[in-house]
Amino acid sequence: MQKQTAINRPSSTYLKVIGAIVWKDLVAELRSRELLSAMLLFALLVILIFNFAIDLQPDLRITITAGVLWVTFAFAGTLGLNRSMAVEKDRGCLDGLLLAPVDRSAIYFGKALSNLAFMLIVAMIVLPIYSILYNINVLNPGLLLVVILGSTGYAAIGTLLSSMAIQTRTRDVLLPVLLFPVIVPVLLAAVKASGGFLQNLPVNEIWPWLNILIAYDVIFTAVAFMVFEFVVEE
Amino acid sequence: MKTQPKVLTFLTILSVVLFLGALGMVFLFAPIEAVMGYVQKIFYFHISNAWVGMLGFMVAAVSGIFYLVSKDLKWDIVELSAVEISLVFFLIAIVSGSIWAKPTWGTYWTWDARLTTAAILEMIYLAYLLLRQGIEDPERRARFSAVYTLIGVISVPITFLSIHIWQTIHPAVIGVGSSSSQGSFGMTPAMLITMFFCLTTFSVVFITLLWYRIRLGQLAEQVDQLKYKIMQ
Amino acid sequence: MVMIKVHKLIKRFGSKTVLRGLDFDVHQGEFVALLGPNGAGKTTFLRILASLARPTLGSVQIAGYTLPAQAGAVRARLGVVTHLPLLYGDLSAEENLRFYGSMYGIMELNRRVQEVLEMIGLTLRRRDLVRTFSRGMQQRLAIGRAILHDPEVVLLDEPYTGLDQDACDMLDALLRDVAERGRTVVMTSHDLARVEGLATRFDVLSRGVISASTKRDDLGKNNLLDFYRQSLAG
User: Fold this and answer.
1) How far apart are CA B98 and CA B110, in angstroms?
2) How many other CB atoms are found less than 10 A from the CB of residue A229?
3) Residue B97 · residue B40 · CB < 8 Å
4) Would you state the pLDDT for residue C92?
């Protein structure tokens, strides 16, 4: 029988692994749709509840919109993070990933990218619905940029923390508790920047917030990348 | 387990003495502030507690890194001890700050950068403890705790900075003005000496308590080992 | 050549010592059945060999590479079957194999996947989702996954658990095939009758060390059950 294994081609395998993980997550989710439907339903419910909880009078709406949207994304996001990791843990698939001769960081990037993809998919559905329900155009390129930057930071740190949480007894409950205190800069900057774009503020006023988002994304992706192996290796 | 080392006994006595001295200095030596009166004296304790809280956080973060590098579980005990003690001191700082704030600003709380970051820091401490509670295996518990401390220590300055920027752009937020505009006061030399004395006192108290707590942790570990031996 | 070389392996979980100075040498081509009572540490030992857990003290070498330092090289030569399936329920058999194949950087992946599917007798069901598979079929696929990259060493942890007669027979045939190709196999099992026909060597792990070891040829008149009982009593 011929040996079919590849002889060392490290860099191509690294990117291929990341791609394989993202592809696998997207295909599996497309078939079961459990994760996305849970996130979507939850997000829409939160938005509806906000309607009753905060009396969204027309003139108030623009200022409140950014806050409502980001609270929604933050909570729906934890659902996605939890589910995404639970799939790996429950059937032992995380071990399957760890058995592969690849750098652990490739697993991190793969999962983080698929988590990011799920968040963006949910955002792309929620935003138009919000526009229709509250008669505010949120499909603003600046806002979309903020959604991408904010979701990136969220997914970067969220993937790391959900990998930890999934290995504890308290699992689902623990993730929001761990995540929210450290995600505050992202939420704050995202809300201010989104609000700024919606109100058509001049770009130099929005710029400090975008800076914070970019800095956070870079810093925490780097930290998570370096620290991930401590979280998954025994 | 060795009996209490002499240095620790000395530190304990020193802590008590210094603390009494600090009380004396605050109430007898330091002058009464012109505008706020007696209430201002809380500041000495408030700032000292906050200082210890932050010091503890630094100790925890450094211990975490040492653990990840050396895998020696003693660093995990140091880290846990530092977090537990800082949690309490910081809580006292927040509460004492609120007590001071009510007569000065008319409100117990404002959402300025320092207070909000303080609250978030407390939440990180509590999250840390909750994390530890959910893990049985000591090695995994130590690893995860160290990682979370690291994440916390990096995110807190960014949090402070972002809230501060928010404050600068929108200075007068809720209720009364920011803490720097009202309620600030110049410090006379006597006040500065008192402040410095209090800071030193609290640092010594912190080290003493930390030491005690580490010993407690080591004892607990020994008990676990003995228990296991008997069960075999 | 000595494929697996374990010397004075100690594994501690906090104050609990599970493996106490274990020595274990396996030559190329041997098929070792690792027996022992529940809780003896078989799974822990296997996980350490599989590079999924780190030794507290002692040395482990597989195919000449040291764990944990050269874990990447070891993983490329290792195939592992645990009691969890390590398969993604929402992907098809084919997709699961292709996913793992790309994690191992296998060249001519398609051809190899079809080859393995045929070996495990799942060619007709290759497009079906794994969550529709019976336990026996999942186990066969799990083995397929483990040998996909043609590893030199195969580790199995209680692979017969929950399988019906047909599935057991198929598993037997597969394992015999793997052994015939000169691969080194270590398998833990409770089913003495089954391993008696398959393994070339029987080791007993008890109280954290290998308390007894015998080759099949040396069993002679004693049967395996007696050997096992004796080694535990001693």
Assistant:
1) 9
2) 14
3) no
4) 93
Burial-class residue B230 by CB neighbours within 10 Å (0-12, 13-18, 19+).
Answer: exposed
Check whether B34 has a pLDDT greater than 90: no
Contact B150 A227 (CB under 8 A): yes
Q: Answer yes or no: are the C-beta atoms of C81 and C157 closer than 8 Å.
A: yes
**B70 inside 8 A of chain A by CB:** no
Whether ipTM tops 0.90, in short, is no
The closest alpha carbon to C53, from C26, C24, C80, C85, belongs to C80
Residue of A177, A201, A206, A228 to mutate, interface with B, max B Cβ within 10 Å: A177
Q: What are phi and psi of B35, to 5 degrees?
A: -75, -50
pLDDT tens digits, C208-218: 888 888 887 77
Residue C218, burial from CB neighbour count under 10 angstroms (0-12, 13-18, 19+): exposed
Distance separating alpha carbons of residues B69 and B140, to the nearest angstrom: 14
Pairing of strands C153-157, C78-81: parallel
From chain B, the residues in CB contact with C15 under 8 A are 138, 221, 224-225, 227-228
By CB neighbour count within 10 A (0-12 exposed, 13-18 middle, 19+ buried), where does B156 fall?
buried
| Amino acid at the residue A105 | S
| Tens digit of each residue's pLDDT (9 = 90 or more) over A184-229 | 999 999 999 998 888 888 888 889 899 999 999 999 999 999 999 8
SS3 B218: helix
Cα C130 from chain centroid (whole Å):
21
Query: What residue spans define the domains of chain C?
Result: 1-77+154-159+185-234
CA separation for the pair A117, A120 (Å, rounded): 5
Chain C residues within 8 A of A92 when measuring between CB atoms = 82, 84-86
Radius of gyration in angstroms for the set of CA atoms belonging to chain B, rounded to a whole number: 20
Dihedral sign for Cα A47, A185, A218, A18, please. Answer: negative
Tell me the average pLDDT of chain A.
87
Full-model pTM: 0.88
Q: What is the mean pLDDT of chain C?
A: 87
d(CA A56, CA A109) in angstroms, rounded, equals 39
Name the CA radius of gyration of chain C, rounded: 18
Confidence (pLDDT) at A231: 92
Tokens for B187, please give them.
């410090």
- Chain A residues near residue C73 by CB distance under 8 angstroms: 101
Tens-digit pLDDT profile for residues B137-181: 888 999 999 999 999 999 998 988 888 888 776 544 333 334 444
Could you tell me the fold of the domain covering C1-77+154-159+185-234? Rossmann fold (3.40.50)
Write the pLDDT tens digit of every residue in C8-30.
999 888 778 888 888 999 999 89
Task: Give SS3 for A101.
Answer: coil
What is residue A35's predicted lDDT score, i.e. its pLDDT?
84
Domain ranges of chain A: 11-232
Q: CB-based contacts of C105: which residues, under 8 Å, 6+ apart?
A: A5, A6, A9, A12, A13, A16, A101
How far off is chain B from C208, nearest CA to CA, in Å? 12
Query: Two tokens at C150?
Result: 């043609």
Closest chain C C-alpha to A14 CA, distance in angstroms: 9
Q: Tokens for B166?
A: 């928010």
Percentages helix, strand, coil for chain C (3-state, rounded to 5) are 40, 30, 30
Burial A185-210 (b: 16+ CB within 10 A, else e): bbbbbbbbbbbbbbeeeeeeebebbb
